[in-house]
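Long-time lurker, first post.

We've been arguing in lab meeting about whether S-adenosylmethionine would sit comfortably in this protein at all. Half the group thinks yes, half thinks no, and nobody has a model to point at. So I'm putting the question to the forum: if I give you the sequence and the SMILES, can you give me back a predicted structure of the complex? Inputs are below. Any interpretation is welcome too.
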Amino acid sequence: MDGEDGYFDERVAATYDAGTDEREIAETVDLLAGLGGSALEFAIGTGRVALPLAGHGVRVAGIDMSRAMVARLRAKPGGDKIDVAIGDFSTTRVDGEFDLVYLVFNTIMNLTDQQAQVACFRNAAAHLRPGGRFLIETMQPDLRRLPPGQNLVPFQDGPEVWAFDRYDVATQQMSSNYLSREAFRSIPFRYVWPSELDLMAQMAGLTPEDRWESWSREPFTHESTRHVSTWRRPA
Ligand SMILES: C[S@@+](CC[C@H](N)C(=O)[O-])C[C@H]1O[C@@H](n2cnc3c(N)ncnc32)[C@H](O)[C@@H]1O
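Top reply:
Settle the argument with this. Predicted structure of the protein with S-adenosylmethionine, as tokens:
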């Protein structure tokens, strides 16, 4: 890790928004905006989602550990109007109660042990009003693509960058690895199944509500490669 900004230092922050799929962001924001008038984004980053959500009239706040990412948010129009706390989203508290706490783009997996992921659910629940929701979007672990004896899943085949995920099925540790002619970069994750997320929600006093395979609310099936899930704090 590169210092207090973690894996999202200035080098990463500077190009972070480049690969953004605007159609996907629009779908994301449509769904989130329907879940209430106030929202807290865990891992708000450069505000890719938070800023358009605020544009829909939602009062948005955020938590992120990377000052470099948050500086990018601040520099965008409307960025100065979003309250952001610098800290770890599994433990940092902000003032107020929210209709929605959300954590997207696989970022639950950036918490690399079970204890931190459980703490994240408890922290989300602590920020919800009665009846409020916690929403997570994350990938399904790609273990079905691992034949016996293999632990790597390639996902980018050049010509500038080659990338692969490395899985350890004994520990649920994984990493995403990026190789270019100039550098090698590796980011650690802990992969997690929907069933374990449901158990973490239960431990935090939240009850399961919806699970879709996409922001357009397609049904979640055994072939889904990711999911958007919500749990509710009892009213
Ligand atoms: C993949 S980016 C997602 C940013 C934003 N949610 C988006 O969709 O564009 C991950 C973000 O999580 C932040 N992050 C990772 N681990 C964190 C932690 N334990 N506490 C706070 N922020 C964290 C990083 O600084 C980075 O901004």
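For your lab meeting: The longest strand covers residues 128-139. The chain has a mean pLDDT of 97. Whichever side wins, do check it experimentally.
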